[in-house]
Design goal:
By secondary structure, this protein is an alpha+beta fold. It folds into two domains: 45-133, Phosphorylase Kinase, domain 1, CATH 3.30.200.20; 138-213 and 226-347, Orthogonal Bundle (Transferase(Phosphotransferase), domain 1), CATH 1.10.510. 34% of the residues lie in helices and 15% in strands. The strands form three sheets. The chain has a seven-stranded mixed beta sheet with strand order 1-2-6-7-5-4-3, sandwiched between helices. Strands 8-11 form a two-stranded antiparallel ribbon. A two-stranded antiparallel ribbon has the order 9-10. The longest helix has 21 residues, at 155-175. The chain starts with 35 loop residues before the first strand and ends in a 10-residue tail after the last helix.
Length: 355
């Protein structure tokens, strides 16, 4: 029923000393290779296939940092000594079309909380490559649910991440022309940079050009997009794609941040998080404290927890027409979590605030 899992660009576990990668010293050398696409003042390189091979050590096994059903991600050392992540789609006409669709979306986007496209390669028939900035702290899913006794993500950081992802979605919905529906908002598709700032990624399910409240229904043979636990039930029932699908998924993500629980756990056959916290969603003012991640102990803001639960409840409401827009969500989170957002913003040393 759900589409195959896509690889988030999370690759913090790779040992750079084990990699023997080539690098592009000064960028492409020939006139053709120097072709760039300018979007809002930022260059996106069009790499040649030989350069892609060089950057990955000819696709060395040691450079692999992620793998899924449709693509493999490699670590690369770029010309300015920075790191990049190369997403190579498997050879397939269908996957190449998906690559072109994702590339078309990414070339339009420039936002501090959306993972940045550095370049691409479309030299090979049916083999597309996307080159992204390297985001070293893995995914939000790993930070929240990684297990192994790792450090607990602090409350203020959780609220700040929620605010940053909301800003990214508001940009997609209202700041782009044409507008974009992400289609697969989830914790695994939120990456964390060196300062634990959020970066929304994976636009393989994105739809472009949604100016109306809803779009025409999908065709009978179209594949359902989204991930278990996050996908909008209204979309599953109706096939109608809209910005409110993203709002629903964001509401689930916000609940994850508050509760520390996974949106869906297929191995344990646990029901959806929205069902588990149903009583809290019906009475966020009175019962929010029951749902807050127990690992936080008393280190959270009770007022912010109530407000966050209330926002989540509005986002996951059954009627899409009654859900807030992402612009409204941004405003509500900014007003509700001012203290947490300000506390994180005041940290100027660039160090992690994991505690």
């Amino acid at each position: 029923m759900f589409r195959r899992w896509r690889i988030p660009l999370c690759y913090s576990c790779c040992d750079l000393d084990d990699l023997e990668l080539g690098r592009v010293a000064d960028g492409p050398e020939t006139e053709t290779e120097q072709e760039k696409e300018k979007e809002k003042g930022t260059a996106v390189w069009r790499f040649g296939w030989a350069e892609i091979e060089s950057l990955t050590g000819k696709f060395a096994a040691a450079a692999v940092i992620g793998e899924g059903g449709s693509s493999t991600v490699y670590l690369a050392l770029l010309g300015d000594a920075s790191l990049g992540a190369l997403k190579l789609h498997r050879p397939s006409e269908r996957l190449y079309r998906a690559f072109r669709q994702e590339l078309d979306v990414l070339l339009r986007l420039r936002h501090p909380h959306i993972v940045r496209l550095l370049g691409y390669c479309d030299d090979r028939e049916e083999e597309g490559v996307l080159v992204f900035e390297y985001v070293p702290n893995g995914s939000l899913h790993e930070k929240l649910h990684g297990g192994g006794g790792g450090e607990v993500l602090p409350w203020a950081r959780r609220m700040t991440i929620a605010y940053q992802v909301a800003q990214a979605l508001d940009y997609l919905h209202e700041g782009c022309d044409p507008q974009v529906v992400h289609g697969d908002v989830k914790a695994a598709n939120v990456l964390l940079d060196g300062r634990l700032q959020a970066k929304l990624c994976d636009f393989g399910s994105a739809r472009v050009g949604f100016s109306a409240a809803v779009a025409p229904p999908r065709s009978a043979d179209a594949m359902v997009v989204g991930s278990p636990g996050y996908v909008d039930p209204y979309y599953l029932r109706s096939g109608m794609v809209s910005k409110k699908n993203d709002v629903y998924s964001f509401g689930v993500l916000l609940l994850e941040l508050v509760t520390g629980a996974e949106a869906f756990d297929s191995e344990r056959e646990r029901q959806r998080l929205t069902a588990e916290v149903g009583p809290v969603l019906r009475d966020p003012e009175g019962r929010a404290a029951e749902a807050v991640d127990a690992r936080l102990g008393s280190k959270y803001d009770a007022g912010e927890a109530k407000a966050a639960a209330a926002v989540a409840a509005m986002c996951v409401g059954d009627n899409p027409g009654l859900r807030p827009s992402m612009a409204e969500v941004v405003r509500m989170l900014r007003d509700a979590a001012t203290s947490s957002i300000a506390a994180v913003a005041s940290k100027s040393d660039g160090k992690s605030d994991m505690s």
